[in-house]
Amino acid sequence: MASIESMIVFTHRGLEPSKPDFFPESSFEAFEDQLSRGFGIEFDPNFCKDGIVVWHDPTLERFSLGKDLRALHDLTVEELHGMKSWNTSHTAEGKIPTFDEVMDLIRKSESTTNALHFKGKYQTPDDLQTLIEHLKKNSDVLSRILIFDVKPETAKTLLEAFPEIALAPSVAHQHDVDRFNSVVAETLIETDEVVQMLKDGIFGKNPWVWLDEWDLTGENGGTKKLYTAEVFNKMRAAGAKIALVTPELHGTSPHLLGDEAHPDAPKGDTKTLFKRIKEIIDLNPDGICTDYPEEAKELN
């Protein structure tokens, strides 16, 4: 079991809403700042014409505040590299980093673990090979990288290339798997199925799980929770470390269901959110991914 003192706080793609003048999300400057403050980062490799940059969305619409609608897969790394944006309050500027630049920021930091979100839609043979090539270029950093949202067939290929790499499937309640799996390219796996995969060694020698509690809605109007001692005990018994997303993340993740929000993260009510984050921390996860890293550190 992890100790609370050793819990890793992953910042969520460079966001930090409690700092209204902070750098734009997923920017080189945001990641650099958060790593310098002792956090791990969660980031999204995005595949363009000839390589990988780090940006969450398939287009530049949000990055450009609506001025540029081009898709990243139609652009080159050179065209995207260093492209600058302002945050929504227009007080801080940031640039799109390349994948290698983010790896170098991690290399120069004191962070122990950082979360690479390999989205299901990119887990194709071509994009997977591109990622493997970039990981090989940064092999000295791999011990500090956790790749999550990994499908079983993707895990097999990654482990053939990197036998010691840390991988995590995305774990969800069966009701959420049934409702939402199509939104995330079929990466969600139900708890008991994941336990068996862990026992079978599907996710390697250093497995994690990435828990995702989409909401509290159960079947037939009932309620449910994924973040419970029972679920944690199952995952630990199967040999996995546990990371999870805090309740507010679905409200700040575009291109999922729109403006969905977790009941524990009502808009404008951080008191309720922080109360729930404290309850989650008391379950002793190995890592949490949050929009509120400073507050989570204080709650820890």
From TrEMBL:
Name the residues that span the membrane: none
According to the UniProt entry, its GO molecular function terms are: phosphoric diester hydrolase activity
Source organism, top-level taxon: Bacteria
Q: Which Pfam families match?
A: GDPD (PF03009)
Instruction: Enumerate the spans annotated as GP-PDE domain.
Output: 12-294
One GO term under biological process is: lipid metabolic process
InterPro entries reported for this sequence:
GP_PDE_dom, PLC-like_Pdiesterase_TIM-brl
The molecule here is called: GP-PDE domain-containing protein
